[in-house]
Amino acid sequence: MNPDTRILASLRAAGEAGISGAALAKDLGVSRAAVWSRIEELRKAGYDIEASPHHGYQLRSSPDRLHADDLLARLGPGKIIGRDVQVFQETASTNDVVEKMARDLVREGIVVFAESQTRGRGRLGRQWISPSGKGLWFSVLLRPQLPPAAATQLTVVSAVAVARGIERHTGLKPEIKWPNDIVFGTRKVAGILLELGAELDHIRHVVLGIGIDVNLDADEMPEELRAIATSLRIEGGRTFDRSDLAATVLTELDAAYGRLRRGDFHEISDEWMRRCSTLGQRVTIRMADRVVVGRAESLNEDGALLVRTDHGRLEHIIGGDVSLAKGPTP
Ligand code: BTN
User: Which residues contact 326 (CB under 8 A, 6 or more apart)?
Assistant: First the structure.
């Protein structure tokens, strides 16, 4: 842990009680003057740190700005996802930054955030609007030991972790729309874009891109999206702390990824099914080369959606665009 990460972790752990400069200096193995100068830098970055003779240093508030050291401090040690964090003020797409890292053989688990993206992208070649300071736009580098066919499992793992993280932080209860949209009713609040580097028989790396609309107001969304998109602020009626939410989602993601690595995918897929608003519905799924209409029945062990068509055939769907189909199931 670097000094700022340790200082922020100690300040948070101390809470109202505060922590003395001497204790921080001892913990970091540096002088009290060195602690003071790091505290000054954190104040310049927007952290309100009070110093008093009785309580030492107390963290009063944190800025609404993502800060790599702060995110690392909130995550704590021992994680795969979030073992390293980088924050860009602006980038084209965090998925591109992480894709380059994957080619440079960076270890799995690094997370790259951007306050804004100029060319954020969604599934099926769509644009992903990523205004500055309003959401969480980030990508994670993974190197799972899975055959390419099981990559859909990661979609399920990510959707469950994002839904859980949102629920834990906000108290709101989002649902999952297959394959990995996080929704409130018919409006989407978060999306997941999985990009794969794979050989025929194994996955080299996965870039897992996640976008969460946190503090956008309806009038900050493009008009054409207002009927189909929402934000946590719109749903919850208040703004949310993006750094805290980011740490909560990454903690859930790390835990769910750990379960997948231990071979406990079924635990996650059970939860996915409980949270999924698509199951049991009559759906239309548009894929690049065909359209399937039928009843969404369940999920298989690879994370594929099983759809019973009107002809009684069971289709394994691994990707596509789902909408509710009109008319009763025959
Ligand atoms: C979707 O639902 O269509 C997926 C949206 C994924 C958006 C995120 S934001 C961070 C990362 N970088 C991108 O360019 N896209 C993903």
Answer: none
**Closest atom, ligand 1, to C-alpha of 181:** 2
The Cβ-side half-sphere exposure at 82, using a 13 Å CA radius, reads: 24
Contact 209, 97 (CB under 8 A): no
Here the tokens at position 78 are 């021992």
For ligand 1, atom 16, the nearest C-alpha belongs to 209
Atom of ligand 1 nearest to the CA of 138: 10
pLDDT class of 327 with cuts at 50, 70, 90: low
Does the beta carbon of 128 lie inside 6 Å of ligand 1? yes
The mean per-residue pLDDT over the stretch 210-217 comes to 98
CB 256 within 8 A of CB 269: no
Q: How far is CA 248 from CA 79, 185, 251, 287, in A?
A: 13, 23, 5, 33
Q: Which of 271, 277, 129, 266 is nearest to 190 (CA)?
A: 129
Instruction: Give the pLDDT confidence score for residue 251 in this predicted structure.
Output: 98
**What would the 3-class secondary structure string for 196-225 be?**
EEECCCCEEEEEEEEEEECCCCHHHCCHHH
Q: Mind listing the domains of the chain with CATH numbers?
A: 3-61 (1.10.10.10), 68-275 (3.30.930.10), 282-324 (2.30.30.100)
pTM of the shown model? 0.94
